[in-house]
Design brief:
The chain has helices spanning about 30-40, 45-60, 70-85, 95-105, 115-125, 140-145, 160, 170-180, 190-200; strands at about 10-15, 20, 110, 130-135, 155, 185-190, 205-210, 220-225. The chain is α/β, with parallel strands linked by helices and about 230 residues long.
C-alpha cells in the first residue's frame, strides 16, 4: 500500500476521470448526441462550440440543487436546448428530450478504468471510502452500474448541496459524514484547484492524472492510475 495511506482511515474519491471516463470522450456530448447532431456539429467552429458550452454551463450552474432524476432530465433538456439554439442545430423537441434522458438514464455513457474496481475493493478492506463529486442524482445508478457503489460508506454530491467543488461546503459535508478529523483523510481528484481547497481544510490531496489533461506540475502527490495506491 502507498505510504501516504498508512496512517489514514478515510479515502475520498472523485468520480469522473478518477473512477470512470465518458464513453464518447465528452461528459456532455454523449454518443447519442454525436449520432443525432454530429453532422450538423461539424459545420460549427470551435469558437462557437466553446461559447455554446459556456452558455449551457452557466445554465447548469445557476441552480444546481437537483434532488431527483426527473429534475435532472429536465435540467439537461434545457441544457441541450441551449446548445441547439446556440449552434443552430435545429434539434427537434423529441431529439432534445431523447438526449436529456440518455444523459440521465443511460449508464453506458460511463466506462470504468480497468483497475478501479479491484483497487477500490482492496482499499475498502482497510479504509472507509467516500465520494466527493460534482454530479447529478443519477450518480448512484452510475456507480451501481460500474459495480463499485457497495464499497463506499458515505458520499457528498454537489447536486445535493447546490454547490460545486472547490466550495468548502463540499469538503465539510464529507468530513461530517465520515466522522473523522481532516488529518486522517485523503482526497483523490483530477483537479489541482479542488485539491487545494481540500488541503486548506487539512485533507491530504492526491492528484490523479489518468486523464492526460490533468498531468500537470504540482506539489501534491501525483498518480496516473488508482493501482498506484496499492
Amino acid at each position: 500500500m502507498h505510504d501516504l495511506l498508512s496512517d489514514k482511515s478515510v479515502i475520498f474519491f472523485d468520480v469522473g476521470y478518477t473512477i470512470d471516463y465518458p464513453a464518447s470522450g465528452d461528459w456532455m456530448f454523449t454518443n447519442l448526441f454525436y449520432e443525432i447532431a454530429g453532422d450538423r456539429l461539424k459545420r460549427c467552429s470551435e469558437t462557437k462550440i466553446s461559447k455554446a458550452r459556456e452558455a449551457g454551463a452557466v445554465y447548469l450552474e445557476k441552480d444546481h440543487l437537483v434532488l431527483t432524476e426527473e429534475d435532472e432530465a429536465e435540467q439537461f433538456y434545457q441544457y441541450y436546448r441551449i446548445i441547439s439554439e446556440s449552434l443552430q442545430l435545429n434539434l427537434t423537441d423529441d431529439e432534445i428530450s431523447a438526449l436529456a434522458r440518455d444523459r440521465t438514464y443511460n449508464m453506458d455513457n460511463y466506462v470504468i478504468y480497468p483497475d478501479a474496481k479491484s483497487v477500490i475493493q482492496t482499499l475498502s478492506k482497510t479504509h472507509s471510502l467516500g465520494i466527493i463529486s460534482d454530479t447529478w442524482p443519477s450518480i448512484d445508478n452510475q456507480l451501481r452500474a460500474l459495480n463499485v457503489l457497495q464499497y463506499f460508506s458515505f458520499a457528498t454530491y454537489s447536486s445535493s448541496l447546490g454547490v460545486f467543488k472547490p466550495d468548502r461546503r463540499m469538503y465539510l459535508d464529507a468530513l461530517q459524514k465520515c466522522g473523522q478529523d481532516a488529518k486522517d483523510t485523503v482526497f483523490i481528484d483530477d483537479s489541482p484547484v479542488n485539491l487545494s481547497a481540500a488541503a486548506e481544510l487539512g485533507i491530504t490531496p492526491v492528484l490523479i492524472a489518468a486523464n492526460p489533461a490533468s498531468d500537470v506540475d504540482t506539489s501534491f502527490t501525483k498518480i496516473h492510475s488508482l493501482s498506484e495506491l496499492l
